[in-house]
Write a structure and sequence with these properties.
The complex is a heterodimer of chains A (371) and B (415). Chain A is built from nine helices and 28 strands. Chain A has 371 residues and is an alpha/beta fold. In chain A, strands 5-4-1-6-11-8-12 form a seven-stranded mixed sheet, sandwiched between helices. In chain A, strands 14-17-20-23-26 form a five-stranded parallel sheet, with no helix packed on it. In chain A, strands 15-18-21-24-27 form a five-stranded parallel sheet, with no helix packed on it. In chain A, β9 and β10 form a beta hairpin. In chain A, α3 crosses α6 and α6 crosses α7. Chain B contains ten helices and 26 strands. The termini of chain B are far apart. The C terminus of chain B is likely disordered. Classes of the chains: A alpha/beta (371), B alpha/beta (415). The interface between A and B is large, with 35 and 36 residues. β14 of chain A pairs antiparallel with β15 of chain B, so a sheet runs across the interface.
């Protein structure tokens, strides 16, 4: 039997999501109303039979710790399974030093103590569904040292600009691995997901540390392509990498179409999250709601069009929400028009009656605002 | 967290036979309600919110689902060390045969050993099939300050409806002087809600005596309470104000669901301070398609609506196809309404599929139409408004097609 533990990494991104990330790391971002981004990766692991999971948090661990709790909601067995949140002791203010390697170094003893032979490393800032059990089997069967998951896209000029790309030969061997420079349309986007033996992982951490304080796992793997057998496996289905604000907005909005959502939510592959015990949503006589995703606990009296509404929101009479993502517990007062915006949690909008952003670059209302 | 020395015993053994097909394989307390709940979530959440940690659930009729449902006590936050939900079906005891519960009081009598183990000062006896929010801790405070031997929660009902209830006649201090079961000429409008607090030592004695009484029907309302009054015990009426509904029929279950559409309803399920907890189903949020038209509706996660929904309640995982119309109806979990189908004034049971362009229910029907099995194709005669029983039969008439298909498949498999 192949044994593996999971490792969810938060810190190898070099970009930032304006606004939202001031309050929480990307993994704790709300996603299509009821989920958090990190739910997808933990559910992938849980559904793949990986029930020992280490979650690395960046410099702001609170939102993730609060959301994960005991981890029971992810269907992880409470005796033999364990969801473990790890903190980096050196949360540098200067983000460049916050590489995954730094946080692995800080928790080296924890990684060394894991009894499993393999490790599955996956990102907390991407949204996709993948069967890691299948990937592990492919990895072991191939005899490779490292297996990397990638996704072929033809939007690499505009999207995934801070992600790595890779190319493979006919035996699926990775022969180039470098950041996306936006020069070509079609690229294989690396999904920041690796499978390797724990022993190799420890060697790579050590090598990276010796090479440079700024080195990430990707850097050291790129350096090792000539000496290690590194293979690529293609992924199909929905993929989002939340590198910046626009990525976040679009990753959500794409899923308003139910058929598109079925590309992410597969039968028998439950995405778990923390329950909020909110009641169903009440739509009043004056409600007009089309082409939208609505979470539980809302009261909707106004118009909602092409938008995503988080839990426990109130949209009052005459208010109109168009092309927006409204995060949880926000109240939009009467006759207010909000268009092309992301409205963070716990906002109250009473006085301003018109908040309209640009369709190509939506606006943002910050958490807890009273406007 | 222990806040009082009271345990709760929830009577959940009843069938609710006037709910017809809804309770064929399900005890009434497990019937779905309000989009995402089951009826028993209400007394269980009330207990949890009232600081009652130990709850016995007395089950009997079709108890497999109900037993497994309530056992997961973490759903209601009753999973701390001293807390727990205990499923108590009838059992065989040393020196005795397996005895079914003969009545509400007998169900408690047969579990005296369980209660003794918990050693409470007070026992709260509840019914598992009422919808309401109530703070039992407040009731206990009043019970203690009135030095009562037992307290009964009562609710003011309209005079013309009083004869449907057990009516309490109480003096100005709340002491109950008389109890009449369904009186033809009620003297008061205080109806018993079937919620009792007893001092355990006294109740224990009375239950043992009642057990020996061959003439007793072993029922709280019919035997124990009248006996206490006869013994001149202090019975206190605890006046409850707020929403309370016994959903015994298809019509009243439908109505109780419809009550949630009223923004001014007394049953506020959005109250953060008194949440009603239930199973977490891990469904997607609600999807409302480009053609959705939603007016006055109560919709929960897992629903996908592409048609029109007016004055209706959609439970977990309901799908409403393009051009379909749902009017004044209750669609239970997993119901699928295909494109163009029209449902009016109906209650559609769990998992029922209604085929394209078919029709169920009627807008001016006297009773609510219960649709308990699939409607597969345009019926020759449209499903007509009938009484519950007839309707159930009508819906069943559609079944043979499915069965003959199954038989056919089996035959071909044998070949």
């Amino acid at each position: 039997m192949i044994t593996a533990f999971g490792l969810i990494n938060a810190s190898d991104r070099i970009s930032r999501v304006e606004g939202l990330e001031d309050y929480r790391p990307v993994g704790a971002f709300s996603f299509i109303g009821r989920y958090r981004v990190i739910d997808f990766m933990i559910s992938n692991m849980s559904n793949s039979g990986i029930d020992q999971i280490k979650v690395f948090t960046g410099s702001n661990p609170l939102p993730i710790t609060e959301h994960l709790g005991s981890g029971r909601q992810y269907n992880i067995n409470s005796k033999r399974g364990h969801l473990h949140v790890l903190f980096s002791k050196h949360a540098y203010a200067y983000n460049l030093y916050n590489t995954g390697i730094t946080s692995y170094k800080d928790n080296l003893d924890v990684i060394q103590q894991m009894p499993q032979e393999y490790v599955v490393i996956a990102p907390s800032y991407m949204v996709f569904t993948a069967d890691f059990a299948e990937l592990l089997q492919t990895h072991v069967d191939s005899g490779a040292d490292i297996t990397m998951l990638y996704h072929a896209v033809d939007t690499a000029r505009e999207e995934f600009l801070t992600n790595y790309t890779l190319t493979t030969d006919k035996d699926r061997r990775v022969n180039s691995f470098e950041p996306n420079n936006g020069a070509a349309k079609s690229r294989n986007i690396f999904m920041d997901t690796y499978i390797m033996k724990k022993s190799l992982f420890l060697v790579l951490i050590e090598r990276a540390l010796k090479t440079s304080s700024l080195y990430s796992l990707a850097n050291i793997v790129a350096d090792s392509l000539g000496t290690l057998d590194v293979r690529g496996v293609a992924h199909k289905g929905y993929l989002a990498s939340i590198n910046d604000f626009l990525d976040y907005y679009e990753a959500n909005m794409k899923l308003i179409n139910y058929d598109a959502a079925l590309d992410l939510f597969k039968p028998g592959w439950t995405i778990y999250t923390r329950t909020n015990d909110s009641p169903p949503t009440r739509y009043l006589e004056t409600a007009i709601v089309t082409n939208s995703i609505v979470s539980n606990g809302c009261v909707i009296e106004g118009t909602v069009e092409n938008s995503i509404i988080g839990r426990n929101c109130v949209i009052e009479r005459g208010a109109k929400i168009k092309n927006c993502i409204i995060l949880g517990s926000t109240r939009v007062g009467r006759n207010t028009l909000i268009e092309n915006h992301v409205v963070d949690k716990h906002v109250r909008i009473d006085n301003i009656k018109k908040i309209v952003g640009d369709a190509s670059y939506p606006g943002y209302v910050k958490r807890g605002d009273r406007i | 967290m222990k806040r009082n020395n009271m345990i709760a015993m929830i009577l959940a053994g009843g069938r609710g036979s006037r709910l017809y097909d809804l309770t064929n394989k399900l005890a009434k307390p497990a019937v779905s309600y309000g989009g995402k709940y089951r009826i028993i979530d209400f007394p269980l959440s009330n207990c949890a919110n009232s600081g009652i940690d130990v709850i016995g659930v007395l089950t009997q009729y079709e108890s497999i689902f109900l037993n497994s449902y309530v056992t997961v006590d973490s759903r209601w936050g009753l999973d701390s060390n001293d807390a727990g939900i205990y499923v108590l079906p009838p059992r065989e005891k040393a020196g005795e045969n397996l005895n079914v519960y003969r009545g509400t009081a007998d169900a408690i009598t047969q579990n005296i050993d369980f209660i003794d183990n918990e050693n409470p000062d007070f026992v709260l006896v509840l019914s598992g099939d009422h919808i309401y929010k109530m703070n039992y801790d407040k009731m206990l405070r009043e019970h203690m300050s009135s030095f009562a031997d037992a307290s009964i929660a009562v609710i003011d009902v309209p005079k013309q409806e009083a004869s449907r209830f057990g009516i309490m006649n109480a003096d100005a201090t709340g002491r109950i002087l008389e109890f009449e079961e369904k009186p033809a000429h009620p003297k008061s409008t205080l109806a018993s809600m079937g919620i009792y607090i007893f001092n355990w030592k006294l109740l224990r004695k009375m239950l043992i005596a009642d057990d020996r009484n061959t003439k007793s029907s072993h029922d709280f309302g019919k035997d124990i309470i009248p006996q206490m009054l006869k013994d001149n015990r202090i019975l206190h009426a605890y006046k409850f104000k707020g929403y309370w509904k016994d959903v015994g029929t298809i019509d009243s279950l439908w109505e109780a669901n419809m009550d949630l559409l009223d923004p001014q309803t007394e049953l506020n399920l959005n109250d953060e301070g008194w949440k009603i907890y239930t199973e977490d189903t891990n469904d997607l949020p609600q999807y409302l398609g480009p053609g959705a038209n939603i007016k006055k509706a109560y919709i929960t996660q897992g629903c996908v609506v592409e048609g029109e929904v007016t004055g209706s309640i959609l439970f977990t995982g309901v799908k409403v196809g393009k051009g379909a119309k749902i009017i004044d109806s209750v669609l239970m979990p997993g119901v699928v309404i295909e494109d163009g189908a029209v449902i009016t004034r109906a209650l559609v049971a769990d998992g029922v599929r209604i085929a394209k362009n078919t029709v169920a229910g009627k807008h001016n029907s006297e009773h609510i139409t219960l649709v308990a099995s699939d409607i597969r194709e345009e019926p020759k005669e449209p499903v007509k408004e009938t009484k519950d029983t007839k309707e159930t039969k009508a819906a069943k008439d559609v079944r043979p097609a499915k069965e003959s298909n199954a038989v056919r498949e089996e035959r071909s498999a044998k070949k």
